[in-house]
């Protein structure tokens, strides 16, 4: 039997890595450090992809036969489930889909519990436990039952999660639909709560208009927020560079607050973290209101583009959700940097690449956002038809080597939007150029540090402190709301 959870997690859990651009820092070092950080992230994303390919290769190698435990080296499994008893153990075989039947299984304590059948593959039932987790059981260890499946309420789920030693001491807060377990700051978790709860009705309404039969989530939507990367990693090992993910197996969203950027570009770091929770929250909402079936695989350009479409947040005048379809300034920044380096020519190559790809880098995420934004404004009927089509993808459908052939990501695209890639790309470029864009890097707080005969410009409070320390407290610091004003003042001083 093959420990399959890892592969499933990588295929369906959506992972967001941030690649924030560096800004020039007269002290030097910051840019280099951010560049290094970005390279490390890209490296680990590549490693993750290679591991995924290895796993798929070992699957192919043993097609039709159950796998020996040695089919995959232990160190090729980067994402062990939090609890070893968790996880999906699947042996490839015939897939049968569920009609929502109730199934009796024994839980970790040996108690019989009523679950709901999610999908069956080979000799295995994948069931949804009353707490919303998906778990696999050999069919012979299960029994059909007439008893109804009863999802757990928020109180019981909270009590159950708090028993996890890795979450010991975590605080909880709630909103109507979300349950947050956290040891992050109060500001961070309260901002997340405001954003997700204001986002939810808008996202739901948007998909109601697509013709999908959407419903309220059956279970509380759990968000687990760690204060630091280390704690996030200790809970479940993820490739370096992953800052948050929605896990389709446990149905929870995981995130951490602190990043290396916090000290050097705090406004961008907050914006990034808050947009990330909105992004993962979008995946989570879509998986819980009947839009995307858990363990189904959608084309990445669509699922990631949609999540980015809902992600824009604002940190000016308090942290809040920017509203459906507002310009995603962080993604616009990446696109405009790309346009500065490579004139947009509308060859269609960018659209063709991202709509056919099974892996997206940071710039691809940006263009996936741009594409969805344009389609949502200019081709909404076709976009809704495309989403409706994908909402019919069932569990394990669309996953290579496990299920039957389904339409490739580019086939899904061309079916609804045609094959005139240059035309679509030109339309997207024109559309994006018409959006109101405020460069978030240039519009963060900037400081001038004046000491002796020198003036230094930086956006990093950490750098300011360092310069103050070096000057023995004899420097003067002036604060500006954006880079342009700081530069003007700097020019005036230097004159
Ligand atoms: Zn995502």
UniProtKB/TrEMBL annotation:
The answer to whether the entry has keyword Signal is yes
Bias class Basic and acidic residues marks the residues at 36-57
Compositionally biased intervals (Low complexity): 70-82
Alphabetic keyword roster: Signal
Q: What are the DUF1570 domain coordinates in residue numbering?
A: 274-397
The segments labelled Disordered in the record are 36-85
**Which N-terminal residues, if any, form the signal peptide?**
1-22
Pfam families recorded for this chain?
A: DUF1570
Domain of life, per UniProt, equals Bacteria
- What's the name of the protein? DUF1570 domain-containing protein
What species does this protein belong to? Aporhodopirellula aestuarii
């Amino acid at each position: 039997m093959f420990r399959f959870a890892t592969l499933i997690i990588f295929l369906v859990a959506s992972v967001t890595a941030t690649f924030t651009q560096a800004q020039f820092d007269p002290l030097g070092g910051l840019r280099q450090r951010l560049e290094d950080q970005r390279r490390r992230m890209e490296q680990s994303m590549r490693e993750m992809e290679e591991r995924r390919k290895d796993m798929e290769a070992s699957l192919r190698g043993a097609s039709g036969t159950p796998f020996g435990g040695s089919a995959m080296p232990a160190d090729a499994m980067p994402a062990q489930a939090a609890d070893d008893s968790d996880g999906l153990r699947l042996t490839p075989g015939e897939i049968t889909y569920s009609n929502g039947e109730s199934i009796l299984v024994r839980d970790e304590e040996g108690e019989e519990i009523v679950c709901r059948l999610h999908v069956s593959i080979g000799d295995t039932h994948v069931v949804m436990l009353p707490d919303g987790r998906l778990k696999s059981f050999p069919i012979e260890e299960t029994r059909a039952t007439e008893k109804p499946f009863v999802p757990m309420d928020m109180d019981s789920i909270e009590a159950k999660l708090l028993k996890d030693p890795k979450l010991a001491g975590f605080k909880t807060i709630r909103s109507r639909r979300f349950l947050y377990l956290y040891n992050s700051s109060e500001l961070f978790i309260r901002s997340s709560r405001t954003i997700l709860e204001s986002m939810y009705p808008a996202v739901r309404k948007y998909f109601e208009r697509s013709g999908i039969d959407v419903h309220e989530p059956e279970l509380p939507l759990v968000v687990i927020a760690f204060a630091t990367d280390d704690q996030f990693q200790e809970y479940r090992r993820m490739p370096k560079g992953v800052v948050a993910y929605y896990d389709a197996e446990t149905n929870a969203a995981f995130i951490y607050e602190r990043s290396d950027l916090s000290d050097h570009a705090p406004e961008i770091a907050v914006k990034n973290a808050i947009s990330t929770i909105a992004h993962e929250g979008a995946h989570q909402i879509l998986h819980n209101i009947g839009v995307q079936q858990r363990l189904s695989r959608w084309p990445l350009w669509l699922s990631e583009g949609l999540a980015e479409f809902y992600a824009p947040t604002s940190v000016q005048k308090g942290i809040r959700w920017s509203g459906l379809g507002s310009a995603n300034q962080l993604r616009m920044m990446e696109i405009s940097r790309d346009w500065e380096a490579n004139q947009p020519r509308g060859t269609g190559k960018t659209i063709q690449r991202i709509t056919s790809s099974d892996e997206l880098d940071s710039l691809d995420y940006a263009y996936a956002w741009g594409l969805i934004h344009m389609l949502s404004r200019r081709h909404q009927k076709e976009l809704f038809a495309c989403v409706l089509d994908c909402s019919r993808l069932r569990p394990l459908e669309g996953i290579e080597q496990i299920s039957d052939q389904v339409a490739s990501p580019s086939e899904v695209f061309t079916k609804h939007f045609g094959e005139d890639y240059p035309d679509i790309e030109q339309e997207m470029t024109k559309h994006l150029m018409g959006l109101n864009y405020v460069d978030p890097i240039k519009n963060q707080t900037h400081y001038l540090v004046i000491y002796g005969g020198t003036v230094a410009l930086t956006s990093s409070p950490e750098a300011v402190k360092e310069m103050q320390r070096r000057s023995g407290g004899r420097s003067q610091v002036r604060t500006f709301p954006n880079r342009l004003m700081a530069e003007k003042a700097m020019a005036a001083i230097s004159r």
